[in-house]
Write a structure and sequence with these properties.
The protein has 153 residues and is α+β, with helices and mostly antiparallel strands. It contains three helices and seven strands.
Length: 153
């Protein structure tokens, strides 16, 4: 079992960042390991929403949103063969934008324990890069459209 945590300060309001990251159809834009997503079962992200990630190396975990507190917490689980992944993103408003903390765990069962352990070592840096990529995409959108995302509640 591998636990990890990454915290970044990003220059976007929590609502904008949360909505972008919570929508599974956006994932291939910012998650470097993904080729696409399939079987997204509802239009708007909501508790219990499920879909399948399709990675560039052919792994296809089944994903589910397990906690959704708008603009504050987004948690999901992913399951593929003998590996379970848990990820929670926490969003805190700052003067400059949002502090995002990603906390996760990879659990490998049986012959998949080694693969989960190796992936767990790469997870913090991979997630850091993915969140920075999401921030870059939102920054580019901000420059081309001044009214992106919902207003803060």
């Amino acid at each position: 079992m591998n636990d990890f945590s990454v915290t970044l300060e990003l220059p976007h309001p929590p609502a904008t960042l949360f909505r972008f990251l919570a929508d599974p159809t956006n994932r291939p834009l910012w998650q470097g390991s993904l080729r696409g997503v399939t079987n997204v079962d509802r239009d708007e992200p909501q508790l219990g929403m499920q879909w399948r990630d399709v990675t560039k190396v052919g792994i296809k975990p089944w994903m589910e949103i397990t906690e959704l507190t708008p603009y504050r917490v987004l948690s999901e689980t992913g399951t593929w063969r003998g590996v379970d992944g848990l990820l929670t993103l926490r969003f805190v408003k700052t003067q400059q934008g949002t502090r995002v903390t990603a906390e996760g765990r990879l659990i490998g069962h049986g012959p998949f324990a080694l693969a989960a352990a190796v992936s767990g070592r790469w997870a913090p840096e991979t997630i850091r890069k993915d969140l920075l990529r999401a921030s870059e995409i939102l920054g580019a959108r901000d420059r081309t459209s001044p009214d992106v995302g919902p207003k803060e509640p």
